[in-house]
Design brief:
alpha/beta, TIM Barrel, 8-stranded parallel barrel, 11 helices, binds erythose-4-phosphate
Length: 216
């Protein structure tokens, strides 16, 4: 399973890249705003800065909601850097735009997926990635991981090449369960990735090895 980091924070992206397990980055308008990046020139420069830190795919989200606007915005974003993947919302004009981008060889990430039907449409339209928001489903008492399992089954039934990009990941159990089910990618906050490192028996065992190594 690939690991993407779900942030626009350059320091966190660098830290994950240096850990050596990072395969890409996802951003969204809220994550960009959190870093204080709102004006267009700064947004563009920020995407380029992110691409220069990581080796993998970097999702950049359109804010237009009509077909023409999504296409114009997406084409500009895709032209910024070969690592850019255009993130498109799951709406009617978004589905049309996914199909258009697919025909032009522009890679896409269909975002705001909350049902298997939406995931099926995104795959049929040729999305490169499809992003179910599992944490936000959990927040409303629906099992986000169940959606990942449904998507895996449906995509495998028909050989869809669209990659399942588990999003809105909140904690290490989400990551482990996504890997068990067979999500292609999990995009996570840095805290969830580094939490995978921890086990108290590792700390106790290491302390004992180090103390024994120090014995004469
Ligand atoms: C990533 O592509 C999504 O935009 C993101 O994971 C949403 O996460 P949130 O539910 O924590 O905002």
């Amino acid at each position: 399973m690939k690991f993407f980091i779900d942030t626009a924070n350059l320091a966190q992206i660098k830290e994950a890249q240096e850990l050596g397990v990072l395969d890409g980055v996802t951003t969204n308008p809220s994550l960009m705003a959190k870093e204080g990046i709102k004006d267009q020139d700064k947004i563009i420069q920020h995407y380029i800065d992110i691409c220069n830190i990581v080796d993998g795919d970097v999702s950049a989200e359109v804010i237009s909601t009509d077909f023409k606007g999504i296409v114009e915005e997406g084409e500009k974003l895709a032209a910024l850097h070969p690592q850019i993947v255009v993130k498109v919302p799951m709406i009617k004009d978004g589905v049309k735009a996914l199909k258009y981008f697919s025909s032009k060889g522009i890679r896409t990430n269909c975002t705001l997926i909350f049902s298997a039907g939406q995931a099926l449409l995104a795959a049929k339209a040729g999305a490169t990635y499809c992003s179910p928001f599992i944490g936000r489903l959990d927040d409303v008492s629906q099992d986000g991981l169940e959606l990942i399992a449904q998507m895996r089954l449906i995509y495998d039934n028909y050989g869809y090449e669209t990659q399942i990009l588990a999003a809105s990941v909140r904690h290490p159990i989400h990551i482990i369960k996504c890997a068990e089910i067979g999500a292609d990618v999990a995009t996570c906050p840095l805290s969830a990735i580094t939490a995978l490192l921890n086990h108290p028996l590792t700390d106790i065992g290491l302390a004992k090895f180090l103390s024994d190594a120090g014995k004469k």
